[in-house]
Every structure is written in structure tokens, then in C-alpha cells.
Amino acid sequence: MYAQSYFDYNATTPCREEVVAAMLPYFTNDFGNPSSSHHPYGWLAKSAVEDATESIAGVLGVTTSSLIYTSGSTESINMVLKGVVKKMQARGNHIITTKAEHKAVLDCCAFLESEGCEVTYLDVHSNGLLPLADLQKALRPATILVSVMVANNETGVIQPLDKIARLVHENGSLLFSDTTQALGKIDLTPILTLVDFACFSGHKVYGPKGIGLVYCKENGNYEALPSLLQGGGQQKGQRGGTINTPFIVGLAKAIELAYQNLTSETKRIQALRERLENGLLAIDLAISNSLTEQRLPNTVHISFPYVDGANLLSALSGQLAVSNGSACNSTSTSPSHVLVAMGVPDSLAYASIRLSIGLYTTEEEIENAINIITAVVNKSREANILWERRV
Ligand code: PLP
Questions:
Q1: Residues 198 and 65 reside in one and the same domain
Q2: Whose Cα sits closest to atom 7 in ligand 1?
Q3: What percent of the chain has pLDDT over 70?
Q4: Is the per-residue pLDDT at 59 higher than 60?
Q5: At which of 200, 235, 259 does a domain end?
Q6: Are 273 and 301 in contact (CB under 8 A)?
Q7: Within a domain: residue 190?
Q8: Span 49-70, mean pLDDT?
Q9: Does 152 sit in the ligand 1 pocket, CB within 6 Å?
Q10: Most informative mutation of 148, 247, 328, 337 for ligand 1 (most atoms within 8 A of CB)
Q11: What average pLDDT is seen over the chain?
């Protein structure tokens, strides 16, 4: 194991032991191809996939045929955005999204722009919420799709999807919500009734990496998504390629376990988060970037004025596994686009860290993290002449 305490559960989570145990037989003894219809190897694999799909659908409160397996949220996002654009071209080519979405959405939108789509990127309020009046103004007859995430991966801020869905559907547009970070942290069933499409990644919920889902509400839109991967006709032709039986079984187990204790685990995690956040906000001038009423129970995002951001992360890296935002952007030298969208100045955005806690976080780790970060911030400020000269 590593010496650092893990505070990066929004980047990825370890696979639960029960999940690994559930998957193992399908790598070895029960290795059949679910599409092999002439022998028991195939029948067994097919039935394992069917059971897993029924389990996921039951837990999420959706139908089995509304789910398509993918390699993860990035693929699911590409499938939905590109699929809707292709199918809806007779109606229009306008997409609306926000500047605070994950790069998987923003990069896909940029690609679609290069292909001739028009994309409106809406600003968010300083608290991270989408201004509904701006969304209303941006909607037009040619708007085919609106893409707004439920919960932000950096700040944990939760958008009012009910109000957003009303506006989008009144305009006759489709609503996609990136639900990647919300799975296993909040009850998604009510949200899935509001949106037309959603996406999931197994590794965010103590399942394996490389497996995910598209949720496609059964109101005619299921048929509307064209296949991005042809070949073999698997998954009703929606996504060709041999179905990954062990990972699907693992994903189902992970989702089942996450929902089994959702209420009690959310309570425990939220109490730890509050202790962590309050401890860090006790540092002089510290600012939280996630103070909305609705937010993920596990995410803390804090800025420390008068601190050098690069030094902060490198000083912490020997003791704590934290990040300054999305793992996909961690090599970028730009400030977090989410904080920039919220109007946070670049210098402050650099001097910010995200701590995301989870299943294995302990009270002791929380207390240690508060002490370590407080010491590092104080030391960094001691070396900053501007800290002394502040008024
Ligand atoms: N959307 C959000 C909100 C995420 O946090 C992530 C992963 O960090 C993704 C999409 C992409 O997920 P994956 O890398 O599993 O495809």
C-alpha cells in the first residue's frame, strides 16, 4: 500500500472485494461468450449478463432495455451526443451545455462544432449553479440537445435538474445529464425520470474500470441513438463487440452494494466531510467552492489565498492523495475550467484543492489531513512576501 491517505475518490475508487469475487468465475471457469447460442458456456454467460442487467435496472428503477453497456462514461457521452446530432439533424444542430461540464462533454462538443454543430456554452453562477434564465434565453427551435451534469466532479455542486428538465422539454429538446459522479452517492432514480439520457462509469462506484452504461429513456429515443460501433449485432445492434461478462457482473454488484447502504453511508460520509471542510475553513481566509444547498456528500473543494498552487500540491503529494480538480486534467497547466467558469480568479483557482472521500475514509485520516494541509498552507504563506504585506 501507499503511505498517502487516499482523498481522490472522485477520480476513481478501488474495486470492492465482493465485486472482484463476483467477477472472478467469469474470467476462468464461466468464460463463455454471451452471444454463443449453441452451448451451455454461452447460455451461462448470457444468463449472467441478463441477471446483472435486471439487477442494475431494478436498483435504478429503469427498464432493462433502457441500458446499453459501454466502456465508461466517456464512451457513453460520445454515443449520446454524436448519436443525437446524427438522428436529429432534420430538426436542427444546436446544442446547449455549460462551461463547468467534464472535459468528456466539452471535448465532444468541440468535436461536434468542428463537424458543423452550433454549441452554446453557458456560464455558471459563482456558486456553480446554472442560471435558469440564461438557459431559457439560449433555447431555440433548432436546439436538439441540452447537456447539464447532475453533480460536478470538482466541486460536488448539484444542479436543479427538475427545473432544467422542465425548460428543456417545454422547448421540445432532449436532455442529457452526466450522472457519472452522482451514481452511488445520491439516489438517482428520481433524476432518471427527468432526463432522456444519462451515463455511468463502474470505477466511480467501486466497480471495475473499463465498463459503463448509457441510460436511454424508453420514449422513442432508444431507437433514436445510432450505433457508433458496428459489428456482431450485440446489444440489439446499438454497440457491436463481444459483451464483457465479468465487468458487467462486477458493475451490477458494485451498484447493488452502493444502493444497499446508501442512506447510512451517505450520513457517515457527510459527517466526515463536514468535519474535514470545517477543519480546513478554520485556516485563515480559506474559501469553499461548494457551498450550494444541494451537493455531493463526499466532496470538499477549497481555495487558499496567498498560497502557491503548484507548491501546495507537491508539498501534499508525499502524505495525501488529493487533486486540484479532474484527474483527466491533472497534467494541464491551466487553472481548473470549472473554477474559471464560476468566476474564480486564476491565481486562486491554482491555489485550490479537491478532497473527495469514500468508503474507506476514517475519522483519523480526516484529522490527519486537516493537520497536514494546515501546516503546508501556513508554511507556504510564510514564504510569500504578499502574505505579510496583506492589509
Ligand atoms: N464525467 C464525469 C463527471 C467524470 O467525473 C468523469 C471521470 O472523471 C467522466 C465523465 C469520464 O469518465 P470515464 O473516464 O470513466 O470515461
A1: yes
A2: 11
A3: 96
A4: yes
A5: 259
A6: no
A7: yes
A8: 97
A9: no
A10: 328
A11: 94
- 328 catalytically annotated: yes
Residue whose CA is at the smallest distance from ligand 1 atom 14: 74
CA of 220 to the centre of ligand 1 (A): 26
Same-domain status, 235 and 101: yes
Same domain, 351 and 271: yes
Say if residue 44 is in the same domain as residue 159.
Answer: yes
Residue 159 Cβ contacting ligand 1 at under 6 Å: no
Same domain (yes/no): 156, 242? yes
Catalytic hit among 15, 108, 199, 328? 328
Does the CB atom of residue 102 touch ligand 1 within 6 A? yes
pLDDT digits (tens, 9 = 90+) for 199-215: 999 999 999 999 999 99
Q: Which atom of ligand 1 is nearest to the CA of 326?
A: 8
pLDDT tops 80 at residue 381: yes
Q: Residue holding cell 451526443? A: 81
What's 309's domain CATH number? 3.90.1150.10
Residue whose C-alpha cell reads 459503463 in the numeric block:
212
Domain containing 101: what range? 17-259
Cβ 181 under 6 angstroms from ligand 1: yes
pLDDT for the residue numbered 127: 96
Whether 380 lines ligand 1, by a CB cut-off of 6 Å, is no
Contacts of 371 (CB under 8 A, 6+ apart): none
Would you report the helix, strand and coil content of the chain in percent, each value rounded to 5? 45, 15, 40
Q: What does residue 117 show for φ and ψ, rounded to 5 degrees?
A: -75, 160
Ligand 1 in reach of 73 Cβ (< 6 A): yes
d(CA 305, CA 20): 43
Q: In this structure, are 270 and 252 located in the same domain?
A: no
Give the C-alpha separation, 181 to 149, whole Å: 9
Cα-to-centroid distance, 179 and ligand 1 (Å): 9
Residue 195 domain-assigned? Answer: yes
- The verdict on 50 and 67 lying in the same domain is yes
Q: What's residue 328's pLDDT?
A: 56
Residue nearest to atom 6 of ligand 1 (CA): 180
The answer as to whether 391 is a domain residue is no
As a dihedral over the C-alpha atoms of residue 162, residue 167, residue 173, residue 174, rounded to 10 degrees, the angle is -10
Terminal alpha carbon distance of the chain: 45
